[in-house]
Structure formats: structure tokens, C-alpha cells
From TrEMBL:
This is Uncharacterized protein. The chain crosses the membrane at residues 13-33. Keywords: Membrane, Transmembrane, Transmembrane helix. It comes from Catellatospora chokoriensis. It comes from the Bacteria.
Length: 216
């Protein structure tokens, strides 16, 4: 259970807790009220506000930061379709990171830069990087050593998706597997990337990060 709390002079306690069901984020506010014979508590459920668009995957952004919602949903659907064609299952929903709110463990995560929060559009390479994070694994937020293999795997997933997207001119010029001046670029446009992605994306999605194998 992930939990944080704050205490105020009026004896209020706000607890953000990840409920027993992994997808359920429960926000419980307990307000202690002075009363004769002891204290009573009034309980109110408050959920973070999200606005969503799209389907499979659905895109959910925090209320007040929804300007890029529709272009993001459109771009994510296009690139997720590439994974689906390979038989790779993507998360049903991607949520924007909200400070102070524990991330949903069974959903993808958007971590926006300051400029992206109010942008009218999101670039295709950034959309690819979002799709390459299909789960908010606790290891990503650990104060100790970051999961280097997983981060490198995310980069290769994102690069392969972007090179295959309509925003990239490279894929139209370099036939898959035909070779490239950049060996990594040549690999991410090859069938070898397809097979590696099919084995690796489920591990990113299930947070089985230690078992990830890198191609080089």
C-alpha cells in the first residue's frame, strides 16, 4: 500500500491509498470533529479528476491539462496499432502523472515536460516514448539504482515505433532489414526488432524488468 498523509491544525488527515484492487485508486479524507464524549470522523471519497478520450488504448489527462488530449489519443492509437499487428497487447488506458497521486500499476503512464502540459500537440517521438512505458513499475521511482536495462529497452521500443510512424521519413527511405548507416536504426526497422519487441514489451508491461534481454 502506498500512502502519504498530511496533518493540519484542524485535525484533518488526507490519505492517498492504493486499494486492494490494483486499478483502484482510493482517496480517503478523514476529518476529525470535536464532539462531546470523543471525536467522530466524517469520511468522503475524492478521486483525482481525469478527462479521457480514445479507446484501446484510452488516454486520460488530469483536469485542467487537457489541451493535447485529442492529438495525443490519435497519435497513441496509430502507434499502438503497430504493436497490435505484432500480437502485442498494450494497456487499456494510459494516465497522466499527477504529483502526489500513486500511479496505477496496471496502466500506462504519461510523464509530461513542463512545455508539454499546455501544448496543443505532442510530437510522434514523445508519443512513442509514452507507449514504451506500459506500466508505472515501482522500480522506475526507486531512490536507489534505476533499472538501466528497462530504460534502454524503452528507448529501443520507442525508436522502433517512431521509425515506423507516419511522422518519420526514415522508414519510407530505408526498407526493413536493408541496412542503414546507423546500425541501431537499421535494426529497429528490421524483423529482428519485431521479434524482440514481442518478447520484451510484455515484460515492461508486467514489470518483469530483470528478465529483459537487450539485443546489444
Amino acid at each position: 500500500m502506498l500512502m502519504s498523509a498530511y496533518f493540519s491544525p484542524v485535525k484533518s488527515i488526507s490519505i492517498w491509498a492504493l486499494g486492494s484492487a490494483p486499478a483502484v485508486l482510493l482517496v480517503v479524507s478523514l476529518i476529525a470533529l470535536d464532539n462531546v464524549g470523543g471525536e467522530r470522523f466524517r469520511i468522503a471519497d475524492v478521486a483525482p479528476g481525469y478527462v479521457c478520450d480514445g479507446a484501446a488504448p484510452r488516454v486520460c489527462l488530469a483536469e485542467g491539462t487537457t489541451r493535447p488530449l485529442k492529438p495525443l489519443a490519435k497519435g497513441l492509437a496509430e502507434q499502438a496499432g503497430m504493436l497490435s499487428q505484432l500480437g502485442i497487447q498494450v494497456p487499456d488506458t494510459f494516465y497522466q502523472e499527477v504529483p502526489g497521486v500513486p500511479a496505477k500499476l496496471d496502466a500506462g503512464l504519461f510523464i509530461f515536460t513542463v512545455d508539454e502540459v499546455n501544448a496543443s500537440d505532442i510530437s510522434a517521438d514523445r508519443i512513442a516514448s509514452f507507449l514504451a512505458m506500459p506500466a508505472a513499475c515501482p522500480a522506475y521511482f526507486s531512490p536507489t539504482t534505476p533499472p538501466v536495462k528497462a530504460l534502454r529497452a524503452q528507448g529501443l521500443i520507442a525508436m522502433g515505433l517512431f521509425e515506423r510512424s507516419s511522422a518519420s521519413s526514415t522508414f519510407a527511405q530505408v526498407a526493413p532489414g536493408s541496412g542503414s548507416a546507423d546500425p541501431v536504426q537499421g535494426w529497429v526497422t528490421s524483423n529482428a526488432w519485431n521479434e524482440w519487441a514481442k518478447a520484451t514489451y510484455p515484460k515492461l508491461k508486467s514489470c518483469d524488468l530483470d528478465s529483459i534481454d537487450l539485443p546489444f
